[in-house]
Amino acid sequence: MPSFYQACAIDYPNGNPHLGHAFEKIGADCQARFKRLKGFDVFFSTGVDENSLNVARTAAAAGLDAREFIDSMSPRFAALWEHLDVSASAFIRTTEPRHHQAAQEFFRRAQARGDIYSDRYEGWYCLSCENYYAEDELVEGVCPIHRRAPEWLAEENYFFALTRYQERLRTHFLDNPDFVIPRSRYNEMLALIEGGLKDFSVSRHRADWGIPTPDDPDHVIYVWFDALINYATVVGFTSDDEAFRRWWPCDAQVIGKDILRFHAIYWPAMLWSCGLEPPAKIVSHGFIDMAGEKLSKSRGNVIDPYDVTEYYGVDPLRYYLLREMRFLLDGSFRRETLHSRYNHDLGNDLGNLLNRCVAMISRYCDGVLPPPGEAADEDAELQSAARSAWSDAERHYAAWEFSEALESAWRFIAAANRYVDQTQPFRLARDPAAGARVGTILYHLADCLRQIAVLVYPAMPGVGERISSQLGCPGPGQASWDESARWSTISPGNSVPGGRPLFPRLDMLD
Known about the structure:
The structure is a single chain. The chain has helices at 19-37, 53-61, 66-83, 97-112, 166-175, 183-194, 223-228, 230-233, 241-247, 260-273, 305-312, 314-324, 335-365, 377-398, 402-423, 425-428, 435-456, 461-471, 481-484, and strands at 3-8, 41-48, 90-93, 116-126, 131-133, 151-160, 180-181, 200-201, 203-205, 212-213, 216-221, 252-256, 282-285, 288-290, 293-294, 331-332. By secondary structure, the protein is α/β, with parallel strands linked by helices. It has a six-stranded parallel β-sheet with strand order 3-2-1-12-13-7, sandwiched between helices. Strand 12 (252-256), helix 10 (260-273) and strand 13 form a beta-alpha-beta unit. Helix 12 packs across helix 13. The longest helix has 31 residues, at 335-365.
């Protein structure tokens, strides 16, 4: 079985997780579930970045010890991913001993190679993103990401010799044009490289929170050097050689565009310095905004996913984020659109299709799936729509184009609804001589819904399982993607139990 290792960015646990965090993890989960359907053995990591000085300051402001604070906050992230049905293989905390060991080993290897040296740093530093900025990188004197005034730092630091890797990075980008997606962000990173790189600080002097630098207790490893290493730690670097050989290098790192430079430029150079291969692909997703502002704890405009799922449910939120937003582009969260997607797409299009199918099988076939008879032109047209849906959805899921993949599924749903309207089994059932044709129509309709359950499963795993359960057939994942795409494979003679409506109509909340 081929392997696929994907890693999400690890989050600062200095506040509760919000919808922006959820967007990334849900998108990554969609890809992980698709890859499993395609026959891959998937390792999917998430986690928290606990060694941030920002975390320590937030803890101090709350009157708490940093360890006490993170022990209360970090489990909230893991709990939300479980609530949102994110099928992660691991949740790493960077205060774990295995990560301290891995980070210090990285530092030692880079130092032994001559890539780490001591020097004095003077410049601007944004506490919110823990990033160093040159004067010309600020926007009207503030951090371009958090729009807060940075601090001026002047201290002795260790530096990583990024400039040594400038030409190798440029060659790597040119030789691997899909290394960063989307293409616009690949171009941004290549322009940064070609514009000239600078060595970057990899330590903080006399900080009392973080991983100590090897052989120098007066410094801790800079959080961005330490945090990137989690992607190697979580698959066994320095702790499980067999696992590390199996999973490394990472196939896809899923991160926000605000931290792309660290992952696309710093991280490959660090890995080369350590004698390791860089990730195969970096997937840089967009931001969710509200009223034009990026969702951010520091700006106080975050949306609590629990508030949304309490009313609409987990899968409707997953569907909305993946259908309404283009994962690789920026998008805006609007409750009106979420509500419309719920009632129209999910309730009217998909939910009613399932309700009609199981109700007619119950009424006209005593709840038992009939066998198909001779095919008619309408059946062939429906089969053609199915083939197109599978082909298009596979292409789009693989390219991280989840909205387009779901659009492909919805075109098939629309075709199935048209099929019911055209064939009108509810009218044919009045004619005893048309029994075989009614059975054929209902069989094909049920088989379409079996296929739809798998097509939407990466985005809405619970919905996929519930559709299968109401049809009385095996759930998604019991067969591969390719096997599920075969026409007419639902078993006639099965009991079709039906069930409660998937998406009861909801009123818009004030």
